Amino acid sequence: MSLLPEARESRAAASRPALHATDLHFAFDGVPVLKGVDIALESGVVTAIAGPNGAGKSTLLEVIAGVRVPSQGRVARSGSIALVVQRIAAPDALPVTVREVVTMGTWERRRTSRADARRRVTDALERVALDELADRPFTALSGGQRQRVLLAQGIARQAQIFLLDEPASGLDSESRERTQAILAEEAARGAAVACVTHDDAAIAIADRVVRLDGGVRVA
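Predicted structure:
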């Protein structure tokens, strides 16, 4: 039985990756870091990006997020991105609270009412266990706490793509498990999730694993 045109279009849209990158090349000061990397991130799937130090994992994450421009290759994205980097620098005098940083995630959704935005911010802060620090200055937080704030910002945004660099770094076992559970929940919601990680447990529970070595993708 053939599908109606509307059904065929819906099935085709569902099968398309949320992010698709092909033949990515990047170099620092003429030294190649990425050498023809392909990667696809699908909605509802948690992907671990693994490999030894210096393999190009964090650079790949920044390129597919749009923070860095590849010297060659193409990145196609079909949704909003939440980028959670490992080291988050901010001026000590930056006058924003944790709640305000998370609220920024709701700004691009123009049809969102203030009440709905507040609800989503509160929910996001509770999920990352930072609700008690909501009114604290963002710059007063530790590096791991800042990562959780950016994760909460992505949750409040209802991002379609989550890109995280070593989200388990510096966290205790309880916090690591909470973060893994949150990412699984976001994938179940339909988001595409990718994490650069050295954590064996995170790699083991990922739906897919992309391995890099020397700037190339390996089996």
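Summary: DSSP finds seven helices and nine strands in the chain.
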